[in-house]
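User: I'm putting together notes for a lab meeting next week and I want to include a structural view of one of the chains we've been expressing. I don't have a solved structure, so I'd like a prediction I can at least talk through. The sequence is below, exactly as it appears in our construct file.
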Amino acid sequence: MKIHEYQGKFLFERHGIPIPRGIACFTVDEARAAAEKLISETGSPVVVVKAQIHAGGRGKGGGVKVVRGAEAAAAAAEALLGSRLVTHQTGPEGQIVRRLYLEQGLEIARELYVGLVVDRERRRTAVMASTEGGVEIEKVAAETPEKILTVHVDPVIGLAAHQARRLAYGLRAGDGSPEPKRTVAELSTVLARLARLFDAEDCSLCEVNPLVISKSGSVFALDSKINFDDNAAPRHREWRELLDTSEEDPVELEAKAAGLSYVSLDGDIGCLVNGAGLAMATMDIIQHCGGQPANFLDVGGGANREQVERAFKIILSSPRVKGIFVNIFGGIMKCDVIAEGIIAATRELDLGVPLVVRLEGTRVGEGQALLAESGLAIQTAKDMGDGARKIVAAIQGRT
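Assistant: Thanks for the context. Below is the predicted structure for the 399-residue chain, given as structure tokens.
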């Protein structure tokens, strides 16, 4: 689950991570009032108007405006609200701006990068830092990987003080600061608090780009990008208040409500599979056979006929889908129940795209018999590879 920058900033503030003064806005009038308040409180006429969407690269896409005065802030807000912002992460279709965050301007001396992710190989949180703040970390990793410093957090003791100091000195935090020791100490503290936040809030990603050092030598989180681990949702009822459904894929939300695990992709072969591992393998083998999966869809180990029908509807809600591959290994889930759901969905939806079904496991004979006797244009497959080859060939024959 993703949240907006301003929501992440509020989490930062709760965990003692310094942020510039800022106010979230939803209308032009709110933006004007917020700018007047920020100017009055800070004594500076400089205000930063930031579009709030779940994508990076907003600055380069024109979604961040530095202005002087409340009326200029209102004009920037009017231009941004309702506009479609296109960045390298949104794709060419862009995302509509519905929220803004107005923030005080700072006198910035340096921009750094800090990101925390789960390193699955090391089974620990990795803290990455770089002097190249304000630049996409992917670009830094590709062109100058030596500029990325990484330490791993011990799950028992957290980010150790010596690790935080090593990163702070490695980033040359004191360079140019009027009080180098204070700046190094502040950055070390911020890094430690980010590590605690990452653990306490069950994040899968926490990125600050840029983390800035002001001309006075103080450290501020100028941006926030936070993703939560959905598996921890039962521990965090407050996440419901942070969810912006307008930024989410409506099909993914529908699937979640139905108890299905679904992620939209860019291909044209819809996948209906039980089990996350089998779903990943199915997508891999489709690509190996020359096709492109349109989705990840795991109906789970105990799906019933109704859930299978719902899964078909969700897959077909994408106009890109030109064929469907059902790959089921029945354990708790019985193959004849799945076959009944497939037949019912095919008839109800008047399926007009090729359908290939591979069944294996509990009551597979009964399931295959139901498909064969249905009188429907359903191709069966003897194994996963056979099914992938058949659906790719069926689609290529139609294009």
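A couple of points you could mention at the meeting. DSSP finds 13 helices and 18 strands in the chain. The first strand starts at residue 22 and ends at 25.

User: Perfect, that's what I needed.
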